[in-house]
Amino acid sequence: MVKSTILCLLFATGLSAQSTKPDTVLNLKDVTIAALRQKDFSNGMIIQHFDSIQRKSYQLASLAELLGGESGMFIKSYGIGNIATATMRGSNATQTTVLWNGFSINNPMLGQTDLSLVPITFIDNISIESGGGSALWGSGAVGGVVHLNSSSQFDKGWSLKAGTALGSFGFNQQNAQVSFSNTKWITSLKFFKEHAENDFFFHNHSIADNPLQRQKHAGTQAISLMNENIYRVNDKNKISMAVWWQNNNRKVPPTVMQQTSEAIQTDKTLRLTAQWTHTNMFSSYALRSAWFTDIINFEDDLSNISSNSHVQSWITEAEGKWYVGKHRIISAGINNRLNIAEADNFSKKINENKLALFITESASFFKGKLRPLVAARQEFATTGYHPFTWTAGMEYVLIPKVILKANVSSVFRQPTLNDKYWVPGGNPDLKPEKGRTADAGIEFRQSNQNQRMQWRISATLFDRQMTNQIIWLPADNFWKPQNLQQVWSRGVESNSSACIRIQSFKLIGQLTTAYTLATNQKKLSDNDASYHKQLIYVPMYNANASFAIQYRQFLLRYSYQYTGYRYTSSDSKEYLTPYHLHSLYISYSIPIKKVSIDLFLRINNLFDEDYYVMQNKPMPLRYFRTGMNINFNNK
Predict the structure, then answer these.
(1) Mind listing the pLDDT tens digit for each residue in 265-322?
(2) Most buried among 19, 43, 238, 468, by the most CB within 10 A?
């Protein structure tokens, strides 16, 4: 019935559209590497972009710090420099998809991405797509999608960027980027290196009087390289290739309940992508391929644990986009992904192949006031059943400055390789998690004619119900995953921003809030105390606010972050208290002909907040980072 409904919607929308030539203008300079369906198919979806000032104030940080400080997402951070994963709208980390240039970089064994390993300096465009995205992006796009895209321009000549920074706890970082582009080629090489001891002071909440102690065995080392190349064959055809290599070593610190730790984890990643795109006035086509390899080695001599895993992914995708008449765009494609995994805790090498067929249609009616969207996707796998998924959304311009948005989707998440094959405990008979999501929002926008004042306010209600949610429970002296949990997530989000220009001054204010109820709706036993209780580590309230003053080459930005109670027991009897974080960022640019020198200082946890994000995992008190960037461009 659902499949028939989607096909009818696609057909009906096509009949209603006009068959005239599309108003399409090809910009030959700007190039963004992404899946074709990322553009033109976001009707009704809530998308947050990060501006240049937000990105600049987090230039020394990881993706985890930016998302935690500037969005409604809650980041589960196990300590500075350690693992950090995302929670969106009450989802868990395996229900959030991270895409790099349109390819999912979630580890197939874990089903998630460690956001602490992604340096901000490597990513040109960052955006968050909230809500169900399984019909567009496949398994795991339940709570939302994080898009990481490369963007560049032709005919910009040579440019060079180099930076160095120092900070508290033995922190030092170096980064560099050299790029060249002419009318046919774009090439860039990025380098990143970071070292930190992370021996910060913290208050130990597990001991009476909360004595001040120094963190031990928490050092990190990271080195990364990225090379991107784009060749314009002609005005209609482009070929792009990218390489991203990372090597991260970190000592895993003890919890506050432990005296010491000798655990060490090494993460090695290599990602290769290639893409051909053809664009004309009436259609676009893309053939994309990628090979990813992820190696994780964990050693703990005290616990006599040695765990090694290696997973490779081969991804191939073909996609087309057609402008049918003036008001209708259709995209369809096929995606194939082969995962090959080996681990000390697997009994054999695992080969998993997944094939997906997808189609999306976007339309525009009444002079662009109404923009509906429908999408459908069917996946097939050698290792299990994948449900049919769909999306229906719309945007409507109520009056020139007020936009209504709505979206309804079916979503799913396939069990991870660890869920199915880990020894002991893995369960190959697990079913996919599945559910439905709904969003409804309103957006107000205002901009005067001379652009001296702009503001935007949006509010969104969301609702998601999931069944067959996987939970690991004790059984036969070890933990085992089972499809037992049913979760209902609902809430409201808001996002506001304002910008005022007064001569050489620029004032910018931003506010993001989220209220999330995520409760267990199924009793696992008659005495299940988690029934109708908030899920652990899902804060009901969190908010971010910032205010920036820019005067010519000077920038001052103050940021505030609030995170509410996080329950640490399923019966909501144990919890971590809310925390308030304040930060200050100051920068000054010195232009010298074709060179600019940027000096900057960032102070985190300005007022020495004593807090824990995760139980028994301490976070630092006040700390700073300062440095310098040199930028050169010959045009």
Answers:
(1) 999 999 999 999 999 999 999 999 999 999 999 999 998 999 999 999 999 999 999 9
(2) 43
What is the rounded CA–CA span in Å between residue 610 and residue 621?
6
Burial of 146 (0-12, 13-18, 19+ CB in 10 A): buried
Quote the CA–CA distance of 82 and 234 in Å, as a whole number: 45
Cβ–Cβ < 8 Å for 273, 293: no
- How far is 621 from 611, CA to CA, in rounded Å? 8
Q: Which residue has the tokens 């109520």?
A: 398
Joined together, the tokens standing for residue 171 give 């922190």
Q: Where are the beta strands (DSSP E) in 5-156?
A: 30-33, 46-49, 74-77, 84-87, 96-100, 103-104, 125-130, 144-153
What count of Cα atoms within 13 Å lies in the side-chain half-sphere of residue 632?
Answer: 10
pTM over 0.90: yes
Q: What are the φ and ψ backbone dihedral angles of 103, each rounded to 5 degrees?
A: -105, 135
Which residue bears the tokens 């909501």?
Answer: 572
Q: pLDDT for 534-551, tens place per residue?
A: 999 999 999 999 999 999
Residue type for 130, please? S
Element of type H or E holding 57? helix 52-57
- The span from the CA of 436 to the CA of 346, in Å, is 33
Neighbours of 214 (CB within 10 A): 10
Question: CA–CA separation, 590 vs 555, rounded Å?
Answer: 12
Cα–Cα distance between 288 and 241 in angstroms, integer? 10
How far is residue 112's CA from residue 101's CA, in Å, rounded to a whole number?
17
Question: Rounded to an integer, what distance in angstroms lies between the CA atom of residue 514 and that of residue 535?
Answer: 16
